[in-house]
Amino acid sequence: MRGVTIQCLFYGSLIFGIWTALLCFYIHHNHVSNLEKKSQGPALIWSLGKKLQQQITHDPKQIPRPRVRFETPDEDETAEYKTFLKLRKDSNYSNSEYIAGFLKYGFNAILSKSLGSERDVPDTRNKMCLQKHYPADLPTASVVICFHNEEFNALFRTMSSVINLTPHHILEEIILVDDLSSVDDLKEKLDHRLEIFRGKIKLIRNKKREGLIRSRLIGASRASGDVLVFLDSHCEVNHVWLQPLLAPIAKDPKMVVCPLIDPIDHKTLEYRPSPVVRGAFTWHLEFKWDNVLSYEIDGPEGPTKPIRSPAMAGGVFAINRHYFNEIGKYDRDMELWGAENLELSLRIWMCGGQLFILPCSRVGHISKHRFPNQPGLMKAVTYNNLRLVHVWLDEYKEQFFLRQPGLKSVAYGNISERVELRKRLGCKSFQWYLDNVFPELETSEGSQ
């Protein structure tokens, strides 16, 4: 009797356990199904460490919404993901093509494609500029445009604007330097489209990646115009842009001039007028735009008066070709991009030249959104800054190292050739530069 009782209890417990397990499984399955129904819908999968992918949806008209799938990101990937979130927050777009274009080109590539290869931009010059007249016998210009994986339409608008808004008798040529681009559009497609500019454009393709500085040197070495005009590959020149740059160089070959840079918004590509500003920099050697002192635009010329500028932005400027060679071109041992604009600015002022911004010349420029995960570029900028510091700042290099003491022991290559160039040109001291060109640097940055 006792054995029968034990058997009944055993089988009863077993049946109860099985039913309990089945009930739990049913509840769990029902909960998961409800969650899946709620989460269904088109989604953009952002896989850190991988390219953007768009999930296939049943309704192609629906706009995909972002969903994040975390893997194990490294530091660069985390920065890229944070940038992605910020881009979505700051824009009205949410599709993968828009985000991919931003990450690849630094601006709204979808809108750039819709704008096409050319467009009309507003004339942002002061009305007083319309009254100015320029000599008919101006020197000729070679426009040098270097690019690396530039968005096709932005590059083509740069070239088209130069062709359409420049008198042909002063435009000697456009020299395109392809710094080993890998984007398909910049290969056969570009070659084919350039046929319409036959006779005005030279295309040079680098055999290895040289960087902006050495690419510009390559382009300048092939130029035949009297004046070199360096232009970034994401610009749009404005009405009567070149004549104001050439006229003062015709009078003084040691005059280096820049247009006013009108910003083109990186999200909307809206072309906006710039106020009259000058180029400057901090003791960290970071370029900045500076307000023009009121007395500099007093007088009959008003806001059309040429502005003495302590520094140039570097994206767009004009210089006599022979003077560019005489003054030492660029420091070809600098890497990629960065600091070359400040180094050339100091060299111009300290070695007998002048640097001016001309408000009656306007050029639009897309200020690209730059991403933090570019260690190669940051390393190049640091290296280039140190070359500048040790050649041109004299005792004031301590002001630079006071703010960045960790760079004192960082290598900067052999500068003996540039030091010898400074001696040969009979250049003045950096103290002279502070006293006569940019006294505000010492007073405004002294406590920082």
From TrEMBL:
GO terms for biological process: spermatid development. SUPFAM superfamilies: Nucleotide-diphospho-sugar transferases. Keywords: Disulfide bond, Glycoprotein, Manganese, Membrane, Signal-anchor, Transmembrane, Transmembrane helix. The keyword Nucleotide-binding does not apply. It is a single-pass type II membrane protein. Belongs to the glycosyltransferase 2 family. GalNAc-T subfamily. This is Polypeptide N-acetylgalactosaminyltransferase like 5. It comes from Ailuropoda melanoleuca (Giant panda).
